[in-house]
């Protein structure tokens, strides 16, 4: 059974159009900063309302819970990253070109979706709610993304452009972990180096190690 405020929220969503969605985006951004400061578990809807100078009832007019906020922000980003990676794998270009683009775009995604993807990593909310439908969906998208990175490395090894002393999946997981580690220090609004430059530097370092007989390439401008 849908509550009265739930019905009003649905009506406002349908009727409010762009203005309603813009307000939700503002709430998502403010909530992210509160989550970052207090941790997901330590945050209440009232904390988000206070950060925005609103009352709780107003927040509930736009969102049903902190879980809804978090699930939307993380879920949308994880799905986009997965579909983009699969598009890269299936598209034109060699393994080096694909891996360079994938690494760079992953770092940019962490910045564009700050701090939600970092919070997901830090708090391991997928494991916390491992039996929920949402967490199972996230796990499937994450696995598909990992499979793409493995496949690109395998393609580079197969065509002779990459060399590795271990299994391609070990290299692939290392790449994902390297970019994810930026959660410990990167903030898009305070970093002196933009996310795209960081991602390009990571890609050049990785490719320099994988390239047969090569050295780390220059970071593209």
From TrEMBL:
DNA-binding segment(s): 44-63
InterPro entries in alphabetical order: Homeodomain-like_sf (IPR009057), HTH-type_TetR-like_transc_reg (IPR050109), HTH_TetR (IPR001647), KstR2_TetR_C (IPR041490), Tet_transcr_reg_TetR-rel_C_sf (IPR036271)
Gene3D superfamilies given in the database record: Homeodomain-like, Tetracycline Repressor, domain 2
Keywords, comma-separated and alphabetical: DNA-binding, Repressor, Transcription, Transcription regulation
Source superkingdom: Bacteria
UniProt cross-references to Pfam families, sorted A to Z: TetR_C_24, TetR_N
Residue stretches making up the HTH tetR-type domain: 21-81
Protein name according to UniProt: TetR/AcrR family transcriptional regulator
Organism per entry: Actinomycetospora endophytica
């Amino acid at each position: 059974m849908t509550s009265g405020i739930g019905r009003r929220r649905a009506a406002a969503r349908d009727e409010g159009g762009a203005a309603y969605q813009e307000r939700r985006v503002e709430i998502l951004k403010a909530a992210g900063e509160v989550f970052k400061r207090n941790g997901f578990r330590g945050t209440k809807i009232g904390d988000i309302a206070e950060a925005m100078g609103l009352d709780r009832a107003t927040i509930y007019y736009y969102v049903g819970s902190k879980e809804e906020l978090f699930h939307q922000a993380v879920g949308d980003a994880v799905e986009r990253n997965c579909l983009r990676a699969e598009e890269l794998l299936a598209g034109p270009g060699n393994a080096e070109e694909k891996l360079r683009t994938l690494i760079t775009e992953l770092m940019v995604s962490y910045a564009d979706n700050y701090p939600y993807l970092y919070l997901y990593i830090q708090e391991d909310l997928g494991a916390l709610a491992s039996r929920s439908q949402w967490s199972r969906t996230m796990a499937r998208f994450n696995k598909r993304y990992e499979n793409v990175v493995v496949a690109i490395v395998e393609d580079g090894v197969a065509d002779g452009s990459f060399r590795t002393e271990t299994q391609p999946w070990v290299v692939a997981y290392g790449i994902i972990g390297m970019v994810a580690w930026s959660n410990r220090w990167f903030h898009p609004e305070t970093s002196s180096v933009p996310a795209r430059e960081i991602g390009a530097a990571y890609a050049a370092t990785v490719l320099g190690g994988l390239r047969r007989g090569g050295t780390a390439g220059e970071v593209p401008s």
